[in-house]
């Protein structure tokens, strides 16, 4: 426990020491052994550069670019670079691309949905069409903005089905979206076909390239056989790309691009009907620190185009080694083609996938288990970054050992009474008291790390709505005052 507001101020060295001590229980953000949440290029000195740049603009407020023109210059520079990388700018099929810097991919997607919704005030019940593999942030956007969500099943290759997506577009559809690539499986949707279907019906089409948009162009330059997904594709009206992912900038910086300024206008929020200053915001936040934006500019300028090409090559090679390790290990298999920067694996009978995730973590490999969905089995997701190239040779023997240990342990055996109770639960029945009892029964304590196989096994048998309620309840239990 730490006291944020002590009676007397604490010396600088002690404050920093306390913060460093808190960080010791976190998963490793560097070192190429964490396959989710963070993006590490393993470039010496880059962290120091980003921190210094962050400090220079930490107190600059993005609320008013006329007061802080330095931030406007930096934001326009980031948008320009993203637009060029993604097929826009002078001499291209999208010469009039504009964009905005946001605080992250979710904000970019919410704003893409907002712009599409507000462009059609005449539609009383606007709808959004997405494949079932689309990022959950689209569901969040639909929920926040009261846009109906039409979810279309993916095909056997885990990609959006162009015919089914086209069939889902109706008179109230304001936006269609697809992924390049999908987060869960790392495959690129057939962007050109879906964009054509949306354009034929006069509907905006958004490409969610938040996850891989900064690395796919470089992979293509290195020879990867990937479909076109950017503004070179007719019918693509907007694209989102996160700079805190494969551009390796500190969190959180994303860019939302529109093919032209007219398409972007409904994204803005302006309000003058009060006695204070007229509020006008391009993004969701009003006050924004310039720190992350300055750090992103510094990162891009330091790495440069040649640096990103080199890092993409290291990432591609690491993906190949990881995929080969999975294919060579009895008991697991690749669930999706490792064509971008994701290795997604499934377990064969006799290997409990959630126990396997714990066994890998015990060996220092921190992965992201993904629960079963519809007819798709549970899988393990590995987001691969350039830093993984430094450690990847040790993965194959550890994977083999983890599979052997998983077989020896056997599957998770949840108490019958717990399964019976879970089977009778509905989302409405989830209370703080119930969550507290479940957490104690599963040995979660204060929620800090540890073996998660039992938790994931319980969630895996619950329907999605119950999963949502249970996880929201557990998070609520964690986020409490430290009295």
TrEMBL record:
Instruction: Look up the record and name the cofactor or cofactors this protein needs.
Output: pyridoxal 5'-phosphate
Q: Which GO terms describe its molecular function?
A: aromatic-L-amino-acid decarboxylase activity; pyridoxal phosphate binding
Q: Does the keyword Nucleotide-binding apply?
A: no
Instruction: Report the superkingdom from the record.
Output: Bacteria
Q: Does the keyword Nucleotide-binding apply?
A: no
List, alphabetically, the InterPro entries matched.
GrpII_AminoAcid_Decarb, PyrdxlP-dep_de-COase, PyrdxlP-dep_Trfase, PyrdxlP-dep_Trfase_major, PyrdxlP-dep_Trfase_small
Which keywords does UniProt give here? Lyase, Pyridoxal phosphate
One of the GO biological process terms: carboxylic acid metabolic process
Matching entries from Gene3D superfamilies are given as: Aspartate Aminotransferase, domain 1, Type I PLP-dependent aspartate aminotransferase-like (Major domain)
Query: Which residues, renumbered to this chain, carry the PTM N6-(pyridoxal phosphate)lysine?
Result: 245
Among Pfam families, the record links this protein to: Pyridoxal_deC
Q: Which family does it belong to?
A: Belongs to the group II decarboxylase family. Sphingosine-1-phosphate lyase subfamily.
The protein's name in its UniProt record = Glutamate/tyrosine decarboxylase-like PLP-dependent enzyme
Q: Which organism is it from?
A: Actinoplanes digitatis
